[in-house]
Amino acid sequence: MEKKKLKISEAAFRVLNLLKILNEKPLSSEEISELLSDESSDEIASKEVVSRYINTLRNAGYRLSRPTLSNDYQYSLEKSPVSIKLDKQDIKTLVQLEKYISNLFQLKMKESFSIFMDKLFRYMKDEDILLVNRHRTNCNSPDDSRSQRLVNYSALIRNIEKYCNDGQRIKIIYRTDYGSDINLVFEPDSIRYDSMCAYICGFNIITGESQMLNIENIIEVSQQPVKIKFNKMISPVKFKLKGRLAKGYTAYEDEKILEKNSNGTEIIVVAYPSDKDMLFRRLLRYGENCEVVSSSFDREKMTDMVEQTLQNYN
Amino acid sequence: MSYDIVNVLGFLELNFMLSEQNISPLIKINENLSLTAYRILMIFELLNQSRYGNDDINRALASRIQNFKPLSDDTIGIYINTLRELGCCIPRPSKKTEFKYQMLSHPFSLKFDESDIKFLIELKKLISVCCDWRLVANTDRLIDKILNFISPEKKKSYLALKKNLIRDISSAYQSKLLDMLDLYCSKKRTLIVSYDSVQNKNKEIKIVAEKLSYQNGAFYLWGYNPEYEESQYLRVDRINEISAINISGITLKPSIITAVYRLGGTSASVFCPDEDETVIEKRENGEIIIESKVKNRFWFYQKILSFGADCTVIYPETIRREIVKKLRLLQKVYECENDGKKEIKN
Fold first, then answer.
1. Is residue A61 left, alpha or beta, with left meaning phi > 0 and alpha meaning psi from -120 to 50?
2. pTM reported for the whole predicted model
3. Of A162, A232, A305, B181, whose CB is crowded by the most CB atoms within 10 A?
4. CA of A143 to nearest chain B CA: how many angstroms apart?
5. How near does any CA of chain B get to the CA of A241, in Å?
């Protein structure tokens, strides 16, 4: 059945459509002229018609820039026709987030946040933007303890960020827990954080395993003229959880629940960890309710960890 | 109220709302202004703020346009259709909307592309490791508002990506519940909560609210449980409701155990004491000795075990024995299969 055509005002539609497109991108006079033209006639809208509609938009409260050389003689809508409703706490949160991101010392992340703020500002009321600027001068970092640690490594973090983006191998001199320095060849992927530290995540060419290296233990790092080759095949770890732990378990981001028994008291989880040591430490928390089932190498490693921990009490 | 007073109040309210939009009063339509265009833009602005019936629309336009002639119902209908043609969702007036037009959505949403969605996910991931539960909760609230301002397709894309990439245990009403719990924590109120534990649904638990925390994608309420005389933590997403609040207070008799443990290796170099912990000694070999006021033994055991071989409990003997017991049980789990392999090695 043919949809009944709605009775509309063509002229009204053209101006709304103009507003909609201006909200997405700047337009030249010629482009506006085409948009405002009546499809039924061959004539395109004149300069006077364009001027009339631009004037009407301005009188209706919409801020349109004047076409000048600096904006390629285009009209652009400086503010969106609609505003997002943010309360005082939201404004504060925006500023806190900005500070938080800045204290991670990653330039790309900071730029991305800046782009995000610019997009959001177009949809925010002027008084809200003023409030953002006021809060910016007063804001204390919400995560001072970590940023105080990491500020000494800010240049290193920026370099590592660049290496991750460049997609090339790096050579690292790394201080181990035992105080000795080892050489690593690493394919960096990203930088990750926990509540206290920053880590470079990637693939250790020598061990053939994914690993997370604490940035504070990096003595030296240099880029190699070799592109990242490995397809980052992360070897999975399967573990079994039992009892109450199994019933209430929610998978972590690199995990998937593979199997569940009928009453949910036993589940098998497969994990693709960025660092197996970190995973095993987490699994130790679960005590006897958790058992690494594969690979056999990982199971042995877990057994060794338990044995070594027990030896502390002998 | 009489119709006239309603009209005046309506007029004043409309004037206030429109003046907020920076629109100069009483526009004079001349050859440099399009009346049709101005009307449709005003109607869009009005519906973006609230519900409006035909009379309301005419009143609002009359307050803005000099020598305004009221629009007929048919003309207003044409304008509404025009907005619908643009992509605005304006259902038919009904009893639910007091027989007024209400704009549910419009095509001027915040334009987010895939890189913006990925950025929001990355932001959420970065915030999730922050110690500040308030920042996490406020960020969730802010992201929710932003999501309601982007297109439904982009919102769906974000939610799907978030499900796969972030461990986020939350519920829709959690924001308000967190605010309430925060208030009760500040006043140390005794609450009776209906809680879905793993084994029992709607279990009633009495708890003196102390603090909130955020860890591994979930919010936790910490407090003193007078029944067990021990500190307890509850996952906020499992709290169904707060059944009762006792403002008279109860005598707290928390059993706090002082424990001392030694930390070495990586764990020592990145260690940050909790509020109930103090580093009492730092050794030349990098080891540290920590004193901890243990309010919840289960939480403490998990923490100690997660340090692996980096950690040794020094004191008290009861906790040492418990840790050893857990490790031996864990050892048994791996013994059966590995015994066979040890024989082969030998």
1. left
2. 0.85
3. B181
4. 7
5. 12
